[in-house]
Amino acid sequence: MQQDSAMTALDFTRTIRPGMPLFPGTPQPSLQAIARIEGEGFRETQLLLTSHTGTHIDAPAHVFPGGAALESFPASQFAGSLAVLDATGFAPDSEIPASFLEENAAARAAEFLFFRTGWERFWGQESYFEAYPVLSAGAARWAADKGKKALGFDTPGIDPAEDASLRLHRIVLGTGRTLVIENLCGLSAAPAGLLSCAALPLKFEGSDGAPARVIGWTP
């Protein structure tokens, strides 16, 4: 007798809450009740947060005047095949070279590339925002030239925290085809090989970035 296959869905998303770690200078989110079951008979919450709070997706509009906003991308941009790449062997303040991607069959095949550096172990500490590994410029160009749908990181950014020029953002987002996802978590639960992925940003007008629910699954 044929049995239905079970699907395991993995959540790679940080929960938005007041007091959560944010890139220095970013206002804290506020979740304020504006209706309560005890009073109005229903519950409703007002959310005040920036477009780059928690696990979020960066659009070209984040760094380029006139760059495409997230809502202008088709829905197909936000779903596809995923490879979670083990980058835990790279030291703090190091660069992940293009060869790391070129020599990896899953990286070549997948539409989404998530880099598991292990840096999420510092979540909640000041060190989370310091000295995390990043892509080399060559690796960023390789992924963007291949037309990957998005590059995701379990770190606060694709660029080093001290790089005000946002060079890697500009390399990746400059193609208009590849997006950036930051502050992923739970990547260690992902199995080897290709998964399916959905990274669905909040849809609002003129979105330079947006918080997103990011999940992966495999039968």
Automatic annotation (TrEMBL):
Keyword Cell membrane on entry: no
SUPFAM superfamilies per UniProt: Putative cyclase (SSF102198)
Keyword vocabulary terms for this entry: Hydrolase
Gene Ontology molecular functions: hydrolase activity
Pfam families in alphabetical order: Cyclase
EC identifiers of the protein: 3.5.-.-
PANTHER family tied to this protein: CYCLASE-LIKE PROTEIN 2, KYNURENINE FORMAMIDASE
Protein name per its UniProtKB record: Cyclase family protein
